[in-house]
Specification:
With 373 residues, the chain is an alpha/beta fold. It has two domains: 231 residues, 3-Layer(aba) Sandwich (Aspartate Aminotransferase, domain 2), CATH 3.40.640; 118 residues, Aspartate Aminotransferase, domain 1. The strands form three sheets. It has an eight-stranded mixed beta sheet with strand order 1-9-8-5-4-2-3-14, with helices on both faces. A four-stranded antiparallel beta sheet has the order 10-12-15-13. It starts with 19 loop residues before the first helix and ends with a helix.
Length: 373
């Protein structure tokens, strides 16, 4: 590694070349709406809902907060069971504990890397009407097989909440991820395909429930002259400044998806022929946003070998998520499936997927990896 080699990140914020974000942020400053309300918040909700094809949206401080309020809006509470993919980030599972419910973790399948419909069916056969919601994740921007999952959940009349935190801009059979279930969740964390530095959005076609989410997210303040609260509230409402960043970022979403796809296809072309390498699955019905380009290894070279080689050259990569049922906090909860998620975790690697990378950067990364073969 040379002293001058600039760090290549896994995925970092990428503001628009046009400066859209600053325009909206400046409007917030000029109008002095530096608060969890204002034009940017209202318009970001409308623009995001329109972009994905949902009727209503609530702008919140995080995707985690959005999942929390979605579970509440779905009526999930103490003693209830929520089915949750095991192969995900802990932010998917944590809100189940927030509402005093019980997670049951579901394995992935190799076809999608997402929730295995067969394991979902097995969970319903085991737990029946104790299951009050199903959380579906679209991992790394790859859509889950929603037709099969929705058919099972509709059969048992259980609401679906989609954690589309990683899949904004991804489609399943022409429909945007996050719009199949009763609620959809998006994240605008710093490493997501578009960012507000931190933030999230809940979308739904149920206007009353979105209104309720907004109410809960602003400390459940009743409509009264004095401060009156009849329900437990939360401080989850997105600020007008942050929403301004989001509005600007949303204008370049298609550009970001196109660049992510270019990165994935570059890796697949340059590395896909190497012995033991298999890239994440892209199905014919799936139009991913390719948030992170991931692959599995089955030969002598292990993910850690590649991560350390890249790290020594100032390049960031990371493992595939460690399954929730293997996490110390969640290991007491039931898990249904085989060991697909564990195999993906042990053999998988997320390659640098930063949209600011040049083809020269990609050539350098691929060259370093090829040296190992």
């Amino acid at each position: 590694m040379t002293e001058t080699s600039e760090k290549i990140w896994l995925a970092s914020p990428h503001m628009s070349d046009e400066g859209y974000e600053m325009q909206y942020v400046q409007e917030a400053f000029d109008s002095n709406w530096i608060a969890p309300l204002g034009t940017n918040v209202n318009e970001f909700e409308k623009e995001l809902a329109s972009k994905v094809g949902a009727d209503h949206a609530a702008a919140l401080t995080s995707g985690t907060g959005a999942i929390h309020l979605a579970l509440m809006a779905a009526g999930v509470g103490e003693g209830d069971i929520v089915l949750c993919p095991t192969l995900t980030f802990s932010a998917t599972a944590n809100p189940i504990i927030y509402v005093n419910a019980t997670p049951v973790f579901i394995d992935s399948d190799y076809e999608t890397w997402n929730m295995d419909p067969n394991a979902v069916e097995a969970a319903f056969e085991k737990y029946g009407d104790k299951i009050k919601a199903v959380l579906v994740v679209h991992l790394y921007g790859l859509s889950a097989d929603m037709d099969k999952i929705m058919a099972i959940c509709n059969k048992y009349n259980v609401p679906v909440i989609e954690d589309a935190a990683e899949s904004l801009g991804a489609y399943y059979k022409g429909q945007h991820t996050g719009t199949f279930g009763e609620f959809g969740i998006f994240s605008f964390n710093g490493n997501k395909i578009i960012t507000t530095s931190g933030g999230g959005m809940l979308v739904s076609n149920n206007e009353e429930k979105v209104k309720k989410v907004r109410f809960w997210s602003t400390q459940s303040r009743d409509q009264a002259r004095h401060y009156q609260h009849s329900e437990l509230g939360f401080n989850y409402r997105m600020s007008n400044v942050v929403a301004g960043i989001g509005r600007g970022q949303l204008r370049v979403l298609e550009q970001r998806v196109a660049k992510k796809k270019h990165i994935f296809e570059y890796y697949k072309r340059e590395l896909g022929h190497l012995e033991g390498i298999k890239f994440m699955p892209v199905n014919e019905w799936d139009e991913p946003n390719y948030w992170l380009s991931c692959m599995t290894l089955s030969g002598k070279i292990k993910p850690l070998d590649i991560m350390e080689k890249l790290e020594a050259n100032n390049i960031e990569s990371r493992p595939v998520w460690k399954p929730m049922h293997l996490q110390p906090f969640f290991e007491e909860y039931d898990y249904i499936g085989n060991d697909v998620s564990q195999q993906l975790f042990e053999n998988g690697i997320c390659l640098p997927s930063d949209t600011k990378m040049t083809d020269q950067d990609l050539e350098r990364i691929c060259g370093l990896i090829k040296e190992m073969w």
